[in-house]
Amino acid sequence: MKTSNSTWKKWLRGVFAGSLALTVAACSGGGQADSGTGSQSGEQAQPASSGEKQKLVVYTARDKNIFEIVLPKFKEKYPNIEVEPMEMGAQQILERVRAEKANPQADFWWGGTQSALSTAAEEGLLEPYKPTFADKIPDLYKDPQDRWYGEMLLPEVIMFNSQALKKEEAPQDWDDLLDPKYKDKIVIRNVLPSGTMRTIYAAMIYRQGPDTPEKGYEWLKKLDANTKEYTQDPTQLYLKLDRQEGVISLWNLQDVLIQSKQNNHPYDFVYPKSGAPILVDGVGIIKGAKNMDVAKKFYEFLFSPEIAAQLAKERYQFPSRTDISKDELPDFMKNLELKPLELDWNVMAAKEKEWMQYWDENIKGKSKK
Fold first, then answer.
1. Contact 195, 336 (CB under 8 A)
2. DSSP label at residue 23
3. 153-186, pLDDT tens digit by residue?
4. What contacts 266, CB < 8 A, 6 or more positions away?
5. Average pLDDT, stretch 301-329?
6. Torsion (CA) 113, 284, 253, 320 in degrees, nearest 10
7. Which residues pair with residue 157 across a beta bridge?
8. In Å, what is the CA distance from 148 to each residue of 40, 109, 274, 299?
9. CB under 8 A, 24+ apart: contacts of 219-222
10. Is the sign of the CA dihedral 89, 95, 99, 104 positive or negative?
């Protein structure tokens, strides 16, 4: 999730400002709402001849390459709605929504971690809304009180250079990473600044027993002993893997696919046999939103099977909806079972800071023999 530059923001404002005044077209099928109320509608969208211009303010942590697909299509469907996206990190969104609680300045939160959205929900910052597709999202990936829903899933996997290793030669599960044969073959993106890496490392501690983190620390010491280097950022990680200065890493599956299929890096992945931590990237309507009905329309549109399938094909997003036809998904998704590790995300959120601080101060780079 990246914050775009000012040029992109100006472009977005140019695209979505000055929309012609037309009435809102009713949503067509796919389980969307006809008036943003959550009721089912099987009618085709029919543009009306007149209507007042409406506005939707979106706080988003999604990247511009997602906007390029979603926002123009939404404008095409609802030409009288002016969308004003404001980009920032998920944690920044939480802080801003919290600060604006008495007078909300945004309507919709697009792109938030499960931890950030859950925190916002418990603080009364999100509006409960049960969308038409509610029963198509597993309980694991939504709030039980309908205050947020996961839009896409980010499995964390074992990544490797496919020019240096055959798939069967790569670690097949998390514990395999500790095998001495992989010593100095592993490179890791620096953990503390990375949400992906913090999730993976916290999950490794949790799976050894959250009440006895010492066991998890011992596990991470063994991984540290096999780790050749911690890179400053993803760019350096990719460079090290390309040069085969390291041939194995841990990373999120979507980025592995983007780097290999779009950017031609020699990467492949192993989905760990015991399961993977699966991050949820979700959405919610901000409590007290000034444009509640419009926010609900965007909610339904964003989760529509058509948009979910297109983002899967073009941006390698794993949809949270379980009813997307396999025929509409790219080949690599059709037979891949996203088996989750059994994790208590509330415990993970509560303990992550403590665990990662201990790792940074007592384990990182100190286990070489």
1. no
2. P
3. 999 999 999 999 999 999 999 999 999 999 999 9
4. 161, 162, 163, 242, 260
5. 94
6. 140
7. 251
8. 20, 9, 28, 10
9. 219/178, 220/359, 220/363, 221/363, 221/366, 221/367, 222/178, 222/367
10. positive
